[in-house]
Amino acid sequence: MILFPVWFFETLVLGGIALAGISGALLLGLLVRDAGGKKIW
Amino acid sequence: MPEGSTVLSARAGYALLGVFGVMWIALGMYWGRRARSLDGFMVAGRNVGLALGTATAVATWITSNTTMLAPQFALQLGVWGMLAYSTASFGLLLFAPLARRIRQAMPHGYTSVEFIRLRYGRAAYVVFLIISLFYGLTWMVSMGMAGGILLEALAGIPYHYGMSVILLVCVVYTLFGGLYAVIGTDFVQSVIILLGVVVVAVAILSRVPLTEVYGNLRANRPALLNVFFPAAIMAVFNNLLFGIGEIFHSNVWWSRAFAMREGVGMKAYLLAGFIWLPIPVVAGFLGLAAPAIGINVTRPDVVGPLVAANLLGYAGGVLVFIVVFCSLASSIDSLLAATSDVVTKEVLQPLLMPNASDARLRKVASLVIVAVGLITWAICLPKMGTLATVLFFAGPLVGSTIWPIIAGLFWKRSNRAGAVLAMLLGSGVGLLAYVQIGWYTATLIGTAVSFVTVVGTTLLRPGSFDWRTLAAERGAAKA
Amino acid sequence: MMTTSPGGVGLILAGLAAFTAGSPGSRAEQLPRAAFQHGLELSTSEGHVTLGWGGEGAGLVYELQSAAGPDFAEPTVEYQGWDEASFLSGLADGRYFLRVRARRPQEAAWGPWSDTVELVCEHHSLTLAWALFACGGVLFLLIVLFVGVNARFLERFESSDA
């Protein structure tokens, strides 16, 4: 059996967590931008 | 720990349900003041911006499946399972150009069923309607059941109460606020979900280093790290195509394409796809961490919440409860709204009230939401089947719609008979494959058969569709 | 749930022996038996299985043991605790032997081992998996190409005689 190496596993999980966190911030940032231009909906 | 104890007390569970339930209803009613008109109710005024557009796509696609099934997938199929689940985001990414085309082709459109009816005629409309309603109902039932199961596992709230409360809350605020309420609450829910999942994952990492998780898997569950895990490899594209079929056909996504301001749709779906991509990996990590933490998993479908609750105690239980409640609500409300749109405009209006005013249709749509909620509740009551199997049955059906839809949007030569045949054959052969061979082939085969049928019939008997038919003012063109 | 297997008779005899050999005046209590709640011959093609068991009486502590051979020469303790089920996954191809036993929480002595479960793990053929992967990949690529190519030229739909 060939296993995924530990660095791959670590990068995958840590990268995923980081991206998810950034995404939350991104959505909030977009909302602020839309609100500024009165373009929310 | 004696059998029967849960991480949260029933009192805490009911309290959380109450607090968030009231919050969603209040927000829904507040935003729902804009939803007086039919366009407001069904397509949120056709002016939704990028922030809300992106968030609603993310939140709606993060279902309880994502938060509960992804950990299970990871624990069953390992790293490949996580990666395979992430490919469900490709449906969102690929829908981006479709969203743009849909808005271009049908500036006054309401539903995906309407598109099929105008593009391919009555027979296709009937087949597609059946597929749409079957899928919508199946998804809703799986959400309802998941909610009941989860609340029982986390807080000991009896299945029937938990399931009923969740459905009731969603019906109420969707009823009052339409798509405005749905999209507005989606934004709040998406932020909560993203932050919640990150917090749980980081908390787990602070207790158990990643190398230890890896080491434990390697020692005790090595196949989960296998680069060539057969069951996972064979499932990758089956699930990917299932996801594409779900998104391409369902009015949940079409209604958002109609709702978003011109120029926003494509960007929103692209962004949403990238945001969604890592979620199954993070959720899956919860499942893989279970053995390393020394948790005995008694049933794989609650391993996600089990890990969070076990490791983080009360706070973890509360967080998971909130995250899953959000992911359930954000999907159920969308389904309620989208399904009611279809039933109101594409079934009730042509059959019973072809000349109804928008105001009348708006009222009817409200009633349909209640009806759909009731039907879902009734089917959820007996708690049949497991979560995954109920939904996977819809795989070949939705897979068979992929090519009729994209050919219908872009290829003027594809004809009516081809579309009908593709959906029927794809569904039929796919279901047969499900039963005879296995679930991991069903969507694959359904899509393949549908593809061959669409391309074959288009090349053999090319039509010549006039795109202007799709753009007609509503009410002016009756198919 | 509890089957009257040949082993059951042996357990009763053992219980009687324990009774007669016990200290004078002690209550004759049989050590709790444990048994799996499903068949003894299990198989999986995905490397995972849910085992379920029970024991005589409530609130028992269980121990689940696995080994590569039916003689349990080098056993591994999979689980010890109150739960009556365990989900094992990530198993490689091979045969696994599992057994469970119970004890009352206030006592130190374990009851006898249950009947042995033999789990055969034989993963799907990798060839089949790659074949399906390839088919799926082709289908997916076709969709991407079709949508991608058409998406570049959305302007052509603008003109009224598209």
Key traits:
heterotrimer; A: mainly alpha; rod-shaped; C: alpha+beta; Immunoglobulin-like; five-stranded mixed beta sheet; 2 helices; 27% helix
Describe the model.
- The complex is a heterotrimer of chains A (41), B (479) and C (162).
- Chain A is mainly alpha-helical and 41 residues long.
- Chain A has 1 helix and no strands.
- In chain A, 34% of the residues are buried.
- In chain B, α1 (10-31) packs across α8.
- Chain B is globular, with a radius of gyration of 22 Å.
- Chain C is 27% helix and 28% strand.
- The radius of gyration of chain C is 28 Å and the shape is elongated.
- In chain C, a hairpin with an 8-residue loop joins β4 (61-67) and β5.
- Chain C is of the alpha+beta class and 162 residues long.
- Classes of the chains: A mainly alpha (41), B mainly alpha (479), C alpha+beta (162).
- Chains in contact: A-B, B-C.
- Chains B and C meet through α4, α5, α10, α18 and α20 of B and β6 and α2 of C.
The total strand number of chain C stands at 8
CATH topology of the largest domain in chain C: Immunoglobulin-like
Query: Numbering strands along the chain, what is their spatial order in the largest sheet of chain C?
Result: 2-8-7-4-5
Tally of DSSP helical segments of chain B:
21
